[in-house]
Amino acid sequence: MFAYIKGKLAAVGENWVVVDTNGVGYRISTSGVTIRQLPHLDEEVKMFTYLYVREDLMEIYGFSDNEQLSTFQLLISVSGVGPKVALAMLSTLAPSEFALAIVNSDDKTISKAPGIGKKLAQRIILELKDKIKSDELVSTKGIDMTEIPSDNISEAVSALMVLGYSAPEATQAVKAVQTEGTNVEGVIKQALKKMVSKK
Fold first, then answer.
1. Which of 59, 62, 63, 187 could share a disulfide with 49, CB 3.0–4.6 Å?
2. Is the pTM of this model over 0.70?
C-alpha cells in the first residue's frame, strides 16, 4: 500500500519512529540499525515501508533502505517468523551479513538475534535457500554462470539473490565491483552500494 513515507522526523522510540507528512503522524516500527541511521528531529526522513495486516492488527514497518525492507519481507515469509523476530534479526545483522549466513548455512550467526533459537535459525536457512534455488532456476536461463570465476563470487551472487535481486542483476553488480583480495562480505556491500545508486 505504501512504498515509502517521506516527511519530518517527529519522534523516536526504542523500536519505532513517527514521521510527520503534511500534518499526519505515521508511527512506524523499525530496526535498531535504521534508528542509528536517522537524522535529527524535525529533519526530513524517508522510510521504505511495509504494511502488515492481521485480523486484529494493522502496523507499518519501515526501514532506511530497500535492502532492510527486502530482508524483512523475506523473513516474515518464513513459517514461525513474525515481524518482531524479523526486526530483532535486522537489529543484529546487516542484510549483507544475513544473506551470507543463509548462503553458508550459518545457523550460529542467525541465532545471535534475540528470539531466534537454533531450530528456527535452521528453518530460516532451509526455507530461504529453497527460495533462492527455485528463483535461480527461473532467472538464470540464458546466462552463462560459468563466467563467475570463483566460489567467493558465486557466494556473493547467491547472497544478493537472498536479498531479492535477480541472478542477472546480482551477477552484473558483483562483476562490476569484483577486486582481488576483497572478502565475500566486502563484495556484497560494494555491489549493494552500486545497485542502490542506480535506483
1. 62
2. yes
